[in-house]
Amino acid sequence: MTELGESGNEKTNIEFLLTILQNAYSFSAHMETRFREEFEQVLLDVSTRIKEVVDTTLLVREILEKLTSSIKQLFIRDTKYQEYGTKGPAVQSYITEAVSICWLMVTRSPRVIISTAIPKESHSEFFNPYKKFGSKVDFVVWPVVKLSNDEGQIICRGTAVFK
Fold first, then answer.
1. For 69, what's the count of Cα atoms within 13 Å in the CB-facing half-sphere?
2. Considering the entire predicted model, what is its pTM?
3. How far apart are CA 44 and CA 46, in angstroms?
4. Is 127 exposed, middle or buried (0-12, 13-18, 19+ CB in 10 A)?
5. CA distance 102 to 109
6. Whole-angstrom Cα distance, residue 123 to residue 117?
7. In whole angstroms, how far apart are CA 63 and each of 42, 70, 72?
8. Which of 35, 36, 33, 60 is nearest to 46 (CA)?
9. Average per-residue pLDDT in the chain?
10. pLDDT tens-digit profile of 51-108?
11. Residue 82 CB: number of other CB atoms within 10 A?
12. Closest to 98 (Cα-Cα) out of 16, 157, 10, 7
């Protein structure tokens, strides 16, 4: 991936992109907590102003799209993540999609979480192999996606490079 620099090897590039995803998730989780009460109040204000029955699904979708767009802009402007802005259009597109999907994940009930933790149990239950399968995980390519409820059901296994 030339936009990440010619000196980066595949592992370094994958770790860089995974770090962006993890930061996007953490940022989205923080923003969801920060804006939850404010968002509820906005919805209450809007609902009291509606005089006639309108398509509330359309209204809520429009509000969520604007909020998602705002979250993306806040992430890109955050000084901790400004280095990502120097990497080119493909990385910018990746950031936009990462923030969008992470925002959707943290605003669900139950919340959808990502995990790059490598469990001591059977790796094949949690990770699909990237290129080849082995006995131990070398590094994570894509996180495990699961629900935050008590069962922590896996929605999608992650992907990992095995040794």
1. 6
2. 0.81
3. 5
4. buried
5. 14
6. 11
7. 10, 11, 14
8. 60
9. 83
10. 554 666 676 677 777 788 888 888 888 878 878 877 888 888 899 899 999 998 998 8
11. 10
12. 16
29, 152 contact by CB (below 8 A): no
CA distance 120 to 48: 52
Q: Which residues contact 31 (CB under 8 A, 6 or more apart)?
A: 71, 74, 103
What is d(CA 126, CA 157) in angstroms, rounded to the nearest whole number? 5
**Cα–Cα distance measured from residue 13 to residue 2, given in angstroms and rounded to the nearest whole number:** 10
CA 106 to chain centre: 8
Q: Indicate the SS3 state at residue 157.
A: coil
Q: How far apart are CA 101 and CA 95, in angstroms?
A: 10
Please give the DSSP secondary-structure letter assigned to residue 111.
Answer: P
| Structure-block tokens of residue 88 | 């080119």
